[in-house]
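Field reference: sequence -> structure
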Amino acid sequence: MLITRLGVMTLILTCTVALFLSSYNYADARIAWSDDPSVAGPTVSAGGAHTCAIETDGTVSCWGANNFGQAAAPTGTFTQVSAGANHTCAVRTDAALVCWGYNASGQAVPPTGTFLQVSAGQAHSCGVKTDSTIVCWGDNTYGQATPPGDAFSQVTAGGSHSCGVKTDGTLTCWGYNAYGQASPPTGSFTRVSAGSYHTCGIKSDATIACWGYNASGQATPPAGAFIQISVATSHTCAIKVDGTVACWGDNGFGGATPPPGRFTQISAGGQHTCGLRPFGAVICWGSNAWGQAPVQAGVLASLAQVSAGDLHTCGIKMDGTIACWGDNTYGQATPPTGAFLQVSAGDLFHSCGVRADATVACWGWNPGGQATPPTGTFTQVSAGYYHTCGVRTDGSLSCWGINSDGRATPPIGTFTQVSAGGNHTCGIKTDGTVACWGDNTHGQATPQSGTFTQVSAGGTFTCGLTTDGTPLCWGSMSPPPAVALSQLTVGEDHGCGIETDGTVVCWGADKFGDTEPLPGTFTQVSAGTYHTCGVKTDGTVVCWGNDDDGQSGQPPCVLCVAAPPLDSDGDGWSDAAELAISKGALIYCAIMRADVNNDGAVNALDLNLLSRWYGQQVPPAPARIDQNRDGVINSLDYNLLASAYGHSVTECP
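Structure field:
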């Protein structure tokens, strides 16, 4: 069974030890930190039959089985959480530990002191202290709670044994060793994951070594280079350097049959596995008997991924469905039903997305066949002007639609990402170099040398992100800022990127305020033709730039810049005198915002449109209906619209 879940998160490696770890569905859009300190970023922790995660405010939420109180999280703020078989442990923001749940062996009574990381096992727990020593507590029948006195960078608590990575890279294990699961090989390792009766680790050369019980082949890893590994009860999964997942071992419930495509993190449970897609989509496969990861209340107000097109925007909600808003003249903002992994709003009037089964669906304008995708499975799709391109699961490219200038004729080879622009296309090969094809009038299809992690094709230019985070552009585009970025995106003639601190920086033409990003920290940003949208770290979506068709959350008050300033003295406030001077600009902005249907007048038609979306959130409700931009359509918006009722835009200065 393939189950989808979308969220701004990564998954945790704590599912390796549970007697009752039979399933979990999909993870919520919560933020937590992994048992594996080498796995950076937000995570969720799945235990025996319950799941815990850290909210954006630092508090812990748990759901699922609670027969021992393992899902009854304490108050306070935390930096990391680990769900075990029937108990849970977490590191508080002051570095102290707290545990709750089943405590028959003392596994839920942590020691005092300050800790960097904690791992909850079957009936024992272990943590790495701030001085790099390990302390364990709980069941010690086999010595699994008696760690050596060395310095460690990571610890993992398994069924009845434990393992740790020393600061020198070597491994040490202790506890139950009937199957050799506590007898690690020699050599240098970067991480380790302990299951019930077998253990696996990634060596410094990126190859995998496993040891212990191997009745189902769970300790016989494939060859190749890997970046992350997760050990379950009787199967193991790992992410290859190209982002694809390999699983081996027991597959009775499908937990060892991963879907195609790229992942950034993997977590193997008892009879199921979950992985995180590059765009934030969480996919789970295998057993789902316990349902300990239901959709949590309120998460549907957030988006996991957003894509800004020409006059419309689309995003993937936390339940995997797509919401679109803005211009819908050709049906480009009316997505099909079902769960999706990724969505791309085209630069004109069509959209495409990768479904949960890895097939592609497109909708909207289709005169050149750009909305008629081929059959097969894909990992990513990009909708351009009159053509669309996608990366197939075997790494090859397919393009469809109008092929003027050769924009829909990709080169032979294997790719990790593709971006369809105006009349040209660019993609990143598996060796990190960029290839472009199509119109090259402005040099937009002549990429710079070097290795890249991402490429984005705009109207008559292209930008790429090098492996060291440096943005480079070619074609008719001003140079990007000299700052390190974690992600970039380009529109018609502007670009935006996320800096290492999470803030957004934009450059290029600023026709509608499209290079004036909103404050805050972001996880993803997408530039449309003349507007940009981004997913903030709390999962909410904000947009800025042109909003003629409601495609942007920013009202078109940038048109007021020609009027007298609202803050003449620069003190950050608009006092009575300044408001009097700038009255014309205020009225103009109010009327522009209240003219919901953009017909030049504020009248009953606008009230009707507001009524239609009353009680909705933005998005998927059209952004311009939200008069006060508080994210909700309610009586406050009615009042603001009513204040401009009867006015005409032509009356404004």
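Note: The helical segments are 576-581, 583-594, 604-612, 635-643.
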